[in-house]
Specification:
membrane; about 150 residues; cell membrane; DNA polymerase, domain 1
Length: about 150
Amino acid sequence: MEATAPRRRHLLPLLLLLLLLCGECPPVSGCNEKRMLAMLPRCGKTFAEMMKKVEVWKWCNLSEFIVYYESFTNCTEVETNVVGCYWPNPLAQSFITGVHRRYFHNCSVDRQQWQDPPDEILIPLIVVPILLTLAMTGLVVWRSKRAAQVV
């Protein structure tokens, strides 16, 4: 009886690995879109409950709710896989987009407007490399002619 206990201990990590790898594998029967659309709102409801903990003015600060959002994303992935659908898919994406519209419609990304530097800076940045290239080319030609005369 004691000899079987070590064998079981060695099988446990293998079983856990198999559960992790295939625990969320979609069934072979195919995607049940109706069931998926019925299950995804549960994820949205849970996310809504978690977002109540975050003040509305902090909804655009990802660090305030990243854990809740990760949980929401994982939930949609699991629910989609349980009914045999791949994730993401167009239906799941449209559900997630709806959640985004509800919570993050006022969040905008402040994009920096790039513009050229003033001419006083831009002209030297263009002219100096050109002049250095010409000077180096002239120096190489002059040295190669001089070396040919010495030999």
